[in-house]
Amino acid sequence: MPVIHLTDQPLDYTAITESVRDPAAGAVVLFLGTVREFTAGQQTEHLEYEAYREMAESSLKQLADEASARFPIVKTAIVHRLGVLQLSDVAVAIAVSTPHRAQAFTAGQWLIDTLKQRVPIWKREHYTDGRVLWQHPVAVADSAAGQSEAT
Amino acid sequence: MPVIHLTDQPLDYTAITESVRDPAAGAVVLFLGTVREFTAGQQTEHLEYEAYREMAESSLKQLADEASARFPIVKTAIVHRLGVLQLSDVAVAIAVSTPHRAQAFTAGQWLIDTLKQRVPIWKREHYTDGRVLWQHPVAVADSAAGQSEAT
Amino acid sequence: MTGSGTVTVLFFAAARDAAGTAQLQLPVPEKVTLAQIQQQVLRHAGGLQPLQSLLLWAVNNQYALPATTVQPGDTVACFPPVSGG
Amino acid sequence: MTGSGTVTVLFFAAARDAAGTAQLQLPVPEKVTLAQIQQQVLRHAGGLQPLQSLLLWAVNNQYALPATTVQPGDTVACFPPVSGG
What ipTM does this complex have? Predict the structure, then answer.
C-alpha cells in the first residue's frame, strides 16, 4: 500500500523516501514544500494548514492513482502536514520512483502541481506584522495580497 | 560550504537533504539515482563505480557553482558513491533548495543530467549471467550493449 | 452522514469564517440538485455571498457540478480555492 | 604532480583496461601540446587505438583540447565517455 496520509506531526521524509525505493526503479525524486520566510516582500512568522480531512485523503489517493496511470511510476508516497508550522518546516513531501530519471522529475512535478490545484487544504499565513491571511490563488477574506505560487 | 563529495560508504541522503533546507526556500528537490535490476532486458547482479577522484570532486564543485549561476538556488548538495553497490542502493544524491518549486525541479534535473555528461565517474555492470561490462553512452570495451540512459 | 431528511453542509477556511459556522444541517426532500443546495446555503449564510464566484463545492468528498444530485444523508462541502502544498 | 621533465598520464575504466596500465610517465620537453601527448600515448599503449575516437582527455583535472599546452609536471588523463549517476 502506498504511504498516503495527512499528519499533525513533523514529516518523516526519510521514511517516505524509503517507502518508494525499489529494485525496479533507477530514480527517486523527493519533493519537499517548506515554509518560506519571505513571500512578495511579506515576512511570515509561522503558518497553519487546515484540511477537509476526509476529502483530502481520498483526493491524495486519487492523485497517486492518476499519476500511476499517466507515468511509469514504480511507487509513490504523499504526506501533507496540518496545523501550525514554523519557518523551514516541511509542509508536504512527495516521493516517486520510476525506472528512468526524467520520468521521476515529470511525475513529481505533476503530483505537486496537481495537489495544489485539487486537494482541499488551506494555508493561513501569520505575518510578522500581525496580519493573518488565508492564502488562495485569488486573495479572499481578511484583506488583500493572497499569494498564488506559494512554493 | 555546500556538501559536495565522493564516498565509499552508503549515502546518507537525509543529511544531504537537511544540508539544503533554509527559511529562504519554499521547495526542496532531492534526486536519488538507485541501482536498477533490469536494463534493456539484462539483469544486474551488482555494479561498481570508479572515479577519477580528484577531477570528479572539482567537477562536482564546478557543477554546483554553474547551477547557482543558472538557477535561483538557495543551497545545493551533491554526493556520489563509489565502489560496489547492490540492487536499489543509492549511487548519487542531489539536493537543491529554491524559493519556488518549479525552479527546484529544473535545477535538480539540470544537475543530474549535466553530472552524467561531465563528471569522470564510470559504472561497471555485473550481470546475473556473469558478464561484466563498462557502461558508456557508446558501448566500448568488453563487448556490446552499453546503455546510455541508465537512470 | 446524518439522518435522512437532511444534508450536512461543511464550510472550510475563509468560507467558514465568512459563513460564521463550520456546519449547517439543511432539510431536503428526497432528491435535489447541488444548485438548489447552493441557493439555500447562500440564503442561510449571507456572509458567503461576496465569495460566491470563488467557492468550490463537493458532494461526498468529490468536486461536484450544480446539476449533481444530492440526497438526504449526503455531505456537501463549500470552500475557497485550495492552497495546500 | 611528478618531477619536471615528465608528464603523468592516467587511464580510467575501459581506457585503463585497453591500455593495460593505470598510469604512464612520458618524458617531455619544456612545452608540448596535448595533441603531441596523445600521439605518444597511443604509440605506447597501442590497445587504446580502437577506442581512439571515443576517448576524452583532461589536463590538470579540466577537459582539454588538442591545442592545450602541457608542461612537465602536468597530469593528463585519458578516459572513455563518463557513466556516473
Answer: 0.92
Return residues 6-45 of B near D (CB < 8 Å): 33
Residue B137 banded pLDDT, cuts 50, 70, 90: low
pTM over the 0.90 mark: yes
Q: Name the residue ranges covered by the structural domains of chain B.
A: 3-140
Helix B101-118 to helix B53-70 angle (10° resolution) is: 150
CA distance A61 to A20: 15
Architecture per CATH, C4-79 = Roll (3.10)
Chain D: residue nearest B124 by CA? D13
Give just the sign of the alpha carbon dihedral A2, B27, A34, B11: positive
For chain D, the domains span 4-79
> A3-140 is classed in which CATH architecture?
Alpha-Beta Complex (3.90)
Confidence of residue A1 (pLDDT cuts 50, 70, 90): confident
How large a percentage of chain B has pLDDT more than 90?
Answer: 86
Q: How many CB pairs under 8 A join A and C?
A: 91
